[in-house]
Design a protein that fits this description.
Length: 448
C-alpha cells in the first residue's frame, strides 16, 4: 500500500473488471486508500477475450472522447499502445467510409484515433492498473449480494463466492461500484432492499454480426485506413467494417439490423461481403488469409436503466457503464460512454460531494452524457420501422435532416468535420444544427 496516501476513505470495491471497472478503480484509487476489483472470469496477464465478454471477439471503437479520457489518466498511453503495434491515425484522413451513395470526405482533422482490438486495449489498461500499489484484482469470483446497514440506507460491502471452491466471503467496503455490464443484478438487489422497481427503456434492434480475423500485408495500401460501409436506411440493413489491428491483422465484422445477419458459411459469407457497397471490404476478405473461425454475436435490444428516476438510492453505491446503459454496439459508443461517466465520478469526488448526495448528483449529471449517446444511437435505429421502443417526438423530421447531413459529408469537408466531431463525442448533436452547418447541408441538398 502507498504509505503516502492520506485519504480518510479506506476501501472501495468495483464489481466487474472490464474497461469500465478498470477505469473506475483508477479513479477510486485517488480517493480511497485501497481498491478491490472483483471479476467473475479468470483473468490472464495477456490480451484476451474472456468468457463473459462475448463482444470482445468483435470490432470495437474507442472514440476520440474516450481516448482523451484514457490519455489523461494514463500518461504515455498512446506510446504504450504504439509499442504493441497499434496504429494511431488521424480520425478523418484515415477514414474509408461509404454511406448514402458515396464516401465521406477524407481530410486531416487533427483528432487522433486508435485502431486496436478490445483484448489488447483492455490488457494495456489493466497492466497499468495492476501496477498501482493500492489496487488488487480478485478473479474467478462472483458478487452474490450487497450488504447494508440495519436500516438498509447504506451499503457496507458485498458477499462474494469463489467459482472454483464455492466458498463465500463477506467483504466490507466504504463504497461499492457496479460496473458488471449488461447482466448487472443491481436493479434486482435494489428491489429486494425496498428501493422499488427501476424504470427501464428498451429499443429492439435485433442486430447480429459475424467477425473473422485475417492476415494483413504490412504494405497493403488499405492498411492505413479504417474501412466502413453503412446502409441507407430503411431500404438497406447491412453493414461492414474492417480495422487494421495490431500484429498485422485485419479484424472484419459484417452484419445487419433486424435479422439480416451475416452467414458463417464461407461462400455465403463472401457473397454477403461482396454485396456491400464499399469494395475495400471484399478486397480484404478475398485477398488475405483467414485466421480462426467465424464468430457471431447477436444484440437484441439497447437497454437503459433509469436509476436517476428512483426516489431513493443507497449511500455508498453507484452504477456505471453497460450496467447503467447498454447501447447498440454498432455505433462503438459503449467504452467512451463508460470513460466519460467515470471521469464525471472523479470530478464529483474532487468536489467533495457529500456521500449522501453522491448517487443523486452522479446519476443526474451522467444522464446528460447518456441522453446524448442514447438519442444518437436510437435515432439511427429508429430509421427502421421494425425498430420498437418509445420514439422521441419529431424523430422523423430530425432523421430527415440527418440523412441530408450524411449525404453532405460525402461532398462538404466542413459538414463532414462537424459530423465526425459529433460522433466522436467531442461536440453535442446540436453542433449539426448551428446556422453555418445547416446552411451548408441544405445547400448540398438542393437539386443541381
Amino acid at each position: 500500500m502507498n504509505t503516502a496516501y492520506t485519504s480518510p476513505k479506506k476501501h472501495a470495491i468495483v464489481a466487474g473488471g472490464s474497461l469500465a471497472g478498470l477505469l473506475a478503480a483508477k479513479v477510486l484509487s485517488k480517493h480511497y486508500s485501497s481498491v478491490t476489483i472483483i471479476e467473475k472470469d479468470s483473468v490472464q496477464r495477456k490480451p484476451e477475450a474472456r468468457k463473459g465478454q462475448a463482444q470482445a471477439y468483435h470490432l470495437h471503437a474507442l472514440l476520440p472522447a474516450g481516448l482523451q479520457v484514457l490519455s489523461h489518466y494514463f500518461p504515455g498511453f498512446l506510446d504504450d499502445l504504439s509499442s504493441h503495434g497499434v496504429k494511431v491515425l488521424d480520425f478523418a484522413s484515415s477514414m474509408n467510409w461509404y454511406c448514402y451513395g458515396g464516401f465521406r470526405k477524407r481530410f486531416p482533422i487533427g483528432i487522433e484515433v486508435i485502431i486496436v482490438s478490445r483484448a489488447l486495449l483492455e490488457h494495456v489498461v489493466r497492466e497499468r492498473i495492476l501496477a498501482m500499489p493500492n489496487i488488487q484484482l480478485v478473479d474467478n469470483t462472483l458478487v452474490k449480494q450487497l450488504t447494508t446497514t440495519d436500516d438498509k440506507q447504506s451499503i457496507t460491502g458485498i458477499v462474494t463466492e469463489n467459482k472454483n471452491t464455492g466458498q463465500t466471503n463477506l467483504v466490507s467496503a466504504d463504497f461499492v461500484m457496479d460496473t458488471s455490464g449488461r447482466g448487472s443484478r443491481t436493479a434486482q438487489w435494489l428491489k429486494e432492499l425496498g428501493y422499488g422497481e427501476t424504470p427501464v427503456s428498451e429499443v429492439k434492434v435485433n442486430v447480429g454480426y459475424t467477425t473473422r480475423i485475417y492476415t494483413r500485408d504490412p504494405g497493403d495500401a488499405h492498411g492505413e485506413s479504417w474501412i466502413i460501409s453503412t446502409p441507407i436506411a430503411p431500404g438497406h440493413k447491412r453493414f461492414g467494417a474492417a480495422f487494421p489491428i495490431e500484429n498485422n491483422r485485419w479484424m472484419v465484422t459484417v452484419g445487419g439490423w433486424h435479422n439480416d445477419h451475416a452467414p458463417t458459411l464461407e461462400t455465403e459469407y463472401l457473397e454477403f461481403v461482396r454485396g456491400l457497397p464499399n469494395p475495400a471490404l471484399y478486397d480484404v476478405v478475398s485477398t488475405n488469409k483467414a485466421v480462426g473461425d467465424f464468430i457471431q454475436y447477436k444484440f437484441p435490444f439497447s437497454l437503459r436503466r433509469h436509476y436517476e428516476k428512483l426516489r431513493r438510492f443507497p449511500v455508498g453505491f453507484l452504477v456505471a457503464g453497460d450496467a447503467f446503459s447498454s447501447f447498440n454496439p454498432i455505433y462503438g459508443q459503449g467504452m467512451s460512454s463508460a470513460a466519460l461517466q467515470v471521469e464525471l465520478l472523479d470530478k464529483l469526488l474532487n468536489e467533495q460531494v457529500p456521500d449522501q448526495d453522491l448517487a443523486k448528483t452522479f446519476f443526474k449529471r451522467s444522464t446528460s452524457i447518456i441522453d446524448v449517446i442514447w438519442s444518437m444511437a436510437t435515432g439511427e435505429d429508429f430509421r427502421y420501422p421494425q425498430t420498437s421502443g418509445t420514439r422521441p417526438p419529431g424523430i422523423k423530421l430530425v432523421n430527415k435532416y440527418i440523412e441530408q447531413v450524411h449525404k453532405a459529408t460525402t461532398k462538404d469537408e466542413v459538414v463532414c468535420g462537424a459530423f465526425l466531431k459529433v460522433i466522436a463525442l467531442l461536440k453535442p448533436p446540436t453542433h449539426l444544427f448551428q446556422p453555418a452547418i445547416l446552411w451548408r447541408v441544405l445547400r448540398q441538398g438542393k437539386p443541381k
